[in-house]
UniProtKB/TrEMBL annotation:
Residues 1-25 form the signal peptide. The lineage of its organism: Bacteria, Bacillati, Actinomycetota, Actinomycetes, Micrococcales. Keywords: Signal. Pfam families: OpuAC. This is Osmoprotectant transport system substrate-binding protein. The keyword Signal applies.
Length: 310
């Protein structure tokens, strides 16, 4: 009989193979845009330019936005897989990209590293005042997909760990995540200042993807920063450490938009999407991407058909 750990390794390796194939397909597209692939050689005049991070879940949401707008007769150009905030936020401010799915807590901390807001409503209110003058956010969704620290069940059981603070009693712990986590407020510095936890750090730049999961299951790292709506948490029986001191801010899905694009029609369409989207939807759609290997376009189309918004 396979143990849960062996099943996790097999699942991780399978996802790695799929990710490699997707990466090769992306390279083969031949896009010359510094911001990633587009749906056409050049953006159509007056088109709404929808962007996404280099994170499959974010791309699914961006595709939902795109198809919802197109279903209402609007022209959309896609610029997906741009990267991290230091790459795409300047593009939003310049108007090269005009609409982007974001996450309230992390976006707030990008602009205000000293914020004291932690709850969903307080974070959203603070975010609206922290944004650059030509950017705004539309309605936040109840759907949340935020950073979380996860360990294997074997590690949790062996060390009596259930919360982030419990890591203080374990020596030789290494945290894994994207390179920028090293200096984020909730990274190693925040672990030390908030919980008195000292960790080593290994950068793994796949946005909590299969390489991060494999490193955790192989015990190369002992703690992994994995987004809370990632189905690999449940499928690999991982333990998400509780965060009673709110090291992580609430991070609800929120549309970030250049004000020139935020017309009443666009606002109404995207707000309908936000009102319907749930965390359970994110987990299910993420599973369709990583396990069922469906495309973002097909996943988005099915969600919109089921939601019956338009």
């Amino acid at each position: 009989m396979f143990t849960a750990l062996k099943k996790g390794r097999i699942a991780a390796l399978g996802v790695i193979a799929v990710s490699a194939a997707v990466a090769l397909a992306g390279c083969a597209s031949g896009s010359s845009s510094p911001l990633g692939s587009t749906s056409s050689a050049s953006a159509s005049a007056g088109a709404i330019v929808v962007g996404s991070q280099s994170y499959y879940s974010n791309e699914i949401i961006a595709e939902i936005y795109s198809q919802a707008l197109e279903a209402n007769g609007l022209t959309v150009t896609r610029k997906f897989n741009i990267g991290q905030r230091d790459a795409y936020l300047p593009a939003l401010q310049s108007g090269e990209v005009t609409l982007f799915p974001e996450y309230t807590g992390n976006l707030l901390q990008f602009f205000d590293k000293t914020t004291t807001a932690t709850s969903a409503d307080d974070v959203f209110a603070a975010l609206k005042t922290a944004l650059p003058a030509n950017l705004t956010v539309l309605d936040q969704s109840q759907a949340a997909d935020q950073d979380s620290y996860n360990v294997t069940k074997a590690f949790a059981d062996a060390n009596g760990v259930s919360s982030i603070g419990d890591l203080a009693k374990v020596s030789g712990v290494t945290l894994g995540g994207n390179a920028e986590l090293a200096t984020r407020p909730y990274g190693p510095p925040g672990l030390l200042s908030t919980y008195g936890v000292t960790v080593g750090f290994t950068p793994i730049d796949d946005s909590a993807g299969p390489l991060t999961l494999k490193a955790l299951l192989d015990n190369t790292i002992q703690v992994a920063n994995i987004y809370s709506a990632d189905p690999s948490i449940g499928s690999n029986n991982l333990v998400t450490l509780s965060d009673p001191k709110h090291l992580f801010l609430a991070s609800n899905v929120v549309p970030l938009i250049n004000k020139d694009t935020a017309t009443p029609q666009v606002t109404q369409i995207i707000n309908k999407v936000s009102a319907a989207l749930t965390t359970a939807d994110l987990v299910a759609m993420n599973g369709q991407s990583t396990v069922d290997q469906k495309s973002s376009a097909d996943i988005a189309k099915a969600w919109l058909a089921n939601a019956k918004l338009f």
